[in-house]
Amino acid sequence: SAVISQKPSRDICQRGTSLTIQCQVDSQVTMMFWYRQQPGQSLTLIATANQGSEATYESGFVIDKFPISRPNLTFSTLTVSNMSPEDSSIYLCSDGDRDYGYTFGSGTRLTVV
Amino acid sequence: QKEVEQDPGPLSVPEGAIVSLNCTYSNSAFQYFMWYRQYSRKGPELLMYTYSSGNKEDGRFTAQVDKSSKYISLFIRDSQPSDSATYLCAMSGYSNYQLIWGAGTKLIIKP
CA B19 to CA B13: how far, in whole Å? Predict the structure, then answer.
């Protein structure tokens, strides 16, 4: 199965600023997913990112707020834009590997002050 | 009704006990079933991955899928305090790669 390196692991950001989260996969994967996880809760899918096409966003998430890039089959970024305290959460990326099961990055713990 | 139901716990058991964690689901199209372990402030770690029905064993862990009952289980033998974590089930259909998640069960193993 793949290994996914995610950074930063944590950050404290000012209201109104933006943060870009990066995920690097050690093998080529067609599909990647971005999630948000509130403390004590399960995962909420933000969007699906395929290389060479626009990301597909879930209800309640929009591209202007969470722009995603997928420049190649091993890399993706999620930007959290114009942040507010309500964006404080853990952000996670995963691959969509049906052969071995989906692997996750270690997560980014974001606090907006 | 949620597509995947999982008791959030907490489930507290003594060290050495056999732990049984379960999820039920309503969508008969689900074919891929996964169990993840998540420690506090960490990303989910894939424990078991099963396609369609049947059992799968890996060390102290056994995953079972009963598609006729729409019920999946994860068994942990000889439980250790280090197994204390939240366990999440997730599943998807053949044509849709998105995972549908359970709420996660918080497991506490008492020394």
Answer: 8
| Matching residue, tokens 């305290």 | A85
Minimum Cα–Cα distance from A89: chain B residue: B41
Q: Which two tokens stand for residue B63?
A: 């995953």
A85: phi then psi, degrees, rounded to nearest 5: -55, -25
Neighboring chain A residues of B98 at a CB cutoff of 8 Å: 33, 45, 48
B73: confidence class by pLDDT, cuts 50, 70, 90: very high
* Residues comprising chain A, all counted: 113
* Gap between the Cα atoms of B5 and B68, Å rounded: 16
Instruction: Evaluate whether B1 touches B98 at the Cβ level (below 8 Å).
Output: no
For residue range A9-43, what is the model confidence (pLDDT) as tens digits? 999 999 999 999 999 999 999 999 999 999 889 99
Q: Counting Cβ atoms within 10 Å, is residue B101 exposed (0-12), middle (13-18) or buried (19+)?
A: buried
* Residues counted in chain B: 111
Name residue A26's amino acid: D
DSSP string, chain B: --SEE-----EEEETT--EEEEEEE--TTEEEEEEEEE-TTS--EEEEEEESSEEEEETTEEEEEETTTTEEEEEESS--GGG-EEEEEEEEESS----EE---EEEEEE-
CA distance to partner chain A, nearest, from residue B46 (Å): 7
